[in-house]
Amino acid sequence: MMLFAQSVGRLWAPLLYCLGVTVMEVTFCLGMIWQMNPYLMPKAFCITQIAVFGFCSFFITGVIATFTYATACTVFRATSKNQITDSTLSYRHGYIIPILVLPLIASAGQMTAVIMLDAAQPTNDMHCDASPIWIRFLGYAGLPAVAAIPCFLLASVAAWKLFKAHKITQSIRNPYSNDSLTFAPIQTRAKRDKSPTHPHDAAGTQDIRRQTPSPNALSPQAIPMALIPSRAPLDPNYPTRKFHLPIGASVSPEYPSPLTIPDTSMGRIDDAYEPGTPTSIGPTFASPSHASSHGSVGAHVYENKEDMEMSDSDAYSSMRILKENDSFVGFKHKVFTEEFPPTGGNALKQRELYFSSKLEPGVSGPPQDFMPAIWRLVFFQVSFFSIEILAALSTIIDITANHGAPTPFGTQHVALLLAAWGPCIVFGHTPAIRRRLAGMLCCGRR
């Protein structure tokens, strides 16, 4: 559980859960001193055992209910605003009410009834419990089970929204078709070099017109799903191309020069351009006219504001596309363009282009293992509240069936085991935990 807390980055809820479960399990195991026979246990120990079981049940329920609320807020924010953040999982001072204040009040009410009615009587069980049976509804069989119902519904709704968002992610994870990356039907003008090195540069400004690419010039496999290993240079006489993404609401027939956007957390300007060094403008993505509309995918280009002088024969460029981050409701890809003269030299210009699906500036995607952790959190919460309802089942059956004595082995004993081993079952297969365990084993062997 603590390894999972480190992978999520929030220690308060797993730590409190482990504390409550540990105290309850230790109190239960102390009964082995008297061979797990309530008739041999002292009355003071029986009262203590009843009080500890009741308070720990309230305490654990409050912790999981609070963390369920925080997780649901995270899921709702991510699915409604297309914004992923784990800030809602942080501890807040108001959480002390369901975690500590309400459990203390409920435990005080339970123990008042147990002491006043002398309900700490030994029964055919493995631990001391309240008798008559109906007093158990004031403890683990009552308030925790009642609180588990709305929390179970909240966790179920969060799981459903997370499932729907996952389906949307699968649909947008590969949003490209065969014609998704095409040549823009525009003309690119090159400014005349003040000190031309080629005869045709002195003639003035030239128009580099679009040529029809060959069928093998650009294939769907070149889309940024993996790194393109080879980078064959283009023919020096082959004109520089300009690409656009046909995924906006509408595309104008003519586009301005590359878009300049201030530096944000989504990208940075890494421009090593040297004045006077011939370079070529690499492929850029034209921005759609309605990039800010809901659900649209905008193209962002980050480069120097300076005008760059070039000719179509003194430089070439290559492009390699990297898949930088793939998150669960938004994705961000980075395109690098490297430009350098074919005659040698160390002049290198690298520009970084980003395009994302509705990722707001200043908000980066979550860690790679964050969303799988959220999945397991929601699953654990649904399972825990099911266990809370299971713990009250035997008491409900005994009351409705008018049993004179409680069931020796009931569902509350199964729930006690599941509360301790449930986190291991749910979180044991988390990739981050597997890596941490592997690292611990490697360090132990050294």
Can you characterise this structure?
This protein is of the alpha+beta class. The chain has a domain at 1-79 and 91-171 and 370-445: Rhodopsin 7-helix transmembrane proteins (Rhopdopsin 7-helix transmembrane proteins, Up-down Bundle), CATH 1.20.1070.10. Helices cover 40% and strands 11% of the residues. The protein has helices at 2-8, 12-29, 43-81, 96-116, 143-172, 370-391, 393-400, 411-427, 431-445, and strands at residues 182-183, 188-190, 206-208, 243-244, 285-286, 297-302, 316-326, 331-340, 349-357. The longest helix has 39 residues, at 43-81. Residues 177-213, 215-231 and 238-369 have low confidence and may be disordered. Residues 188-220, 276-296 are annotated as: Disordered. Residues 286-296 have a biased composition (Low complexity). Keywords: Membrane, Transmembrane, Transmembrane helix. The chain crosses the membrane at residues 12-35, 47-75, 95-117, 137-163, 377-397, 409-428.
